[in-house]
Amino acid sequence: MDLQKIGTFLKDLRKEKGLTQEQLAESLNVSRRTVSRWETGMNMPDLDLLMELSDLYAVDLREMLNGERKSEDKMNKEMQETVLQVAEYSNAEKERGAKVVCIYFIVGIIALIVNIIMDLFMDMQETFWAGFLEGGTIGLAIAAMIMGILYATGALRKVYAFKMRLIGKGKAE
Fold first, then answer.
1. Contact 47, 87 (CB under 8 A)
2. Which of 4, 6, 56, 87 has the largest count of CB atoms under 10 Å?
3. Exposed, middle or buried, 53 (CB in 10 Å: 0-12/13-18/19+)?
4. Which domains, ranges and CATH numbers included, belong to the chain?
5. Tell me, what's the pLDDT at 20?
6. If we measure between CA atoms, which residue out of 47, 101, 56, 42 comes closest to residue 79?
7. How much is the average pLDDT of 38-59?
8. How distant, in Å, are the alpha carbons of 11, 25, 81, 110, 157 from that of 35?
9. Per residue in 138-150, is it b (16+ CB within 10 Å) or e — as a string?
10. With bands split at pLDDT 50, 70 and 90, how would you rate the model's confidence at 145?
11. pLDDT by residue (tens digit) across 72-99?
């Protein structure tokens, strides 16, 4: 797939429609910079956005992915339904990821609140268990926040993939 060619094609289609990058970005609920990255070939739109662009420009999805017009015949109905299902699956995965990140941050916030309540409102003697509880809540808060950041940035997915490659190599030897 030639991202430069696709980007140029997307730019030409936008200009044919008489749209600016800002107008297109606003209609798709993305930033102008995102549209610019598509058109320079740095990134590709998500599948659901590609479908929207295909409808907006009245261009076959296969033509968009090839970066050129091929023919006037439209994508058959089965292909379009399959692509829509893939887009829905992709969106469901994004929603699940957002929920996981929220859970990590909520756990972290609750741990911080518990720690603050212990410091401000509970007159606890300086014992091992009081220190352990105080340190544990701070540690849990920091760990939850770090895990949320790692999950949101995709770093956990990379670590998991690396681990699976190592396991795979270990089995082969």
1. yes
2. 6
3. buried
4. 3-66 (1.10.260.40), 91-172 (no CATH)
5. 92
6. 47
7. 86
8. 9, 6, 25, 39, 26
9. eebbeebbebbeb
10. confident
11. 454 566 667 777 777 777 777 778 878 8
Q: What is the mean pLDDT of residues 17-35?
A: 90
Q: Give the pLDDT confidence score for residue 71 in this predicted structure.
A: 54
pLDDT higher than 70, residue 130: yes
In eight-state DSSP terms, residue 40 is T
Q: What is the residue type of 148? A: G
Looking up tokens 């409808």, which residue turns up?
Answer: 55
Helices (H), 71-127: 77-121
Sign of CA dihedral 12, 15, 19, 21: positive
d(CA 84, CA 68) in angstroms, rounded, equals: 22
Q: Looking at this protein, which amino acid is placed at residue 19?
A: L
Instruction: Give the confidence band of 173 by pLDDT, cuts at 50, 70, 90.
Output: very low
